Batch of 2 targets.
Target 1
Amino acid sequence: MVAPFSQSFTIEGRNFFNAGEASTEIKSILKELGIDAAVIRRTAIATYEAEMNVVMYASRATLTLNIVPEMIRIVVDDDGPGIPDIDLAMQEGYSTATPEMREMGFGAGMGLANIKKNSDQFTITSNVGIGTRLDIVIFIS
Ligand SMILES: Nc1ncnc2c1ncn2[C@@H]1O[C@H](COP(=O)(O)OP(=O)(O)OP(=O)(O)O)[C@@H](O)[C@H]1O
Ligand SMILES: [Mg+2]
């Protein structure tokens, strides 16, 4: 059985140099805790996509990782422009990535859809001009 665990991470918007650090650290925490490889993989994908969206579109965020024996919960709460149309943003292929971001390999418009696919529960809420919050739950079975 997995022991309860909780940790918060700060993600800096527009800092491509440190991009992916939180997801990488979370992946090693999950490995350390002996969590099932498939669960780690799904969590790593969801966390990485959420982290990169903060780097690309927001000013900053707090990512909170909570692990209890039944589930992994990740909440990413950002300060940023928010998302005016969540249904549109969720559509595969929709992206507002800049040419520079596309040159770096981002902007396929797949991130949010991939987070949803890899989560057991996924909630996204956003306030334009304030920020966006993702609540991701992945069951450990
Ligand atoms: N945290 C966020 N704050 C503001 N806008 C966001 C945020 N996350 C996503 N978006 C908006 O939703 C769109 C779709 O996001 P999604 O992650 O699916 O694709 P992408 O980031 O554009 O490309 P990819 O993730 O495939 O590199 C983004 O282009 C952006 O307009
Ligand atoms: Mg993305």
Target 2
Amino acid sequence: MTVNGVSVSLEADGDIPLLDALRNHLGLVGTKFGCGLEQCGCCMVLIDGSPVKSCGKALATAAGKSIVTIEGLGTRERPHPLQQAFLDEQAGQCGYCLAGILISAKALLDRNPAPTRREIVLALDDNICRCGSHNRILRAVERAAAAMREGAGR
Ligand code: FES
Ligand code: FES
């Protein structure tokens, strides 16, 4: 499979969760284990552009696919506009949910650069923030969308 643009080959039990392979075999610990039951969205990654809960996805099903994790969004020096907007809005508290939320938000903005508030809410419906930062998270996604549209228009 391809992970964050890099071709990787893994020898591992195909039945293990993709999340375990990413964290334990590839060292990509930005993707978090929350419930392990496909309920919280902490473990969201993009598979061929669609958000997927990696705790419930067998590694074998990712063979040949393109995976994007939070490590593939931006860097400390060059954060993705979503990451910058979350910083600017101070959208996280503990931050545990944010990798999954940023991935779901990226999937949304990739297909819809100008989402309504309701469309953002629906896109993040599978992501739970236990700290209750939801309003700031929604504002951050709106801010990122506006920044990305402005950047694209330059
Ligand atoms: S850890 Fe995968 S949905 Fe909660
Ligand atoms: S910021 Fe703590 S769970 Fe969302």
